[in-house]
Amino acid sequence: MEKCKQCFEKCMTVTDTYMKASTWKDLALIKLCVFSVGVLLGICIPKKHKTVYSIIGALVIGVTLTPIMMKFVPMLIDEFEDFE
Questions:
Q1: Residue 1, SS3?
Q2: Is the pTM value of this prediction over 0.85?
Q3: Do 53 and 39 touch, CB atoms closer than 8 A?
Q4: CA geometry: angle 63, 30, 60, nearest 5 deg
């Protein structure tokens, strides 16, 4: 249980560091990504249009999540280098 707590604390530290280093553009991408996830999960559309909207939502998630993760993952890896 102690390892889980340490891991969580490290993740929160990295998240705080990422947020301090982020610009408004990064935060806009995060919001757009979260919005797209909500659309994919919550939309009630006719079956004939579901595939089109699902593809659009998945593309938006991919396009917005990639730059976010490209900045966040290296920070996370650096924080966990000495984690046992």
A1: coil
A2: no
A3: yes
A4: 30
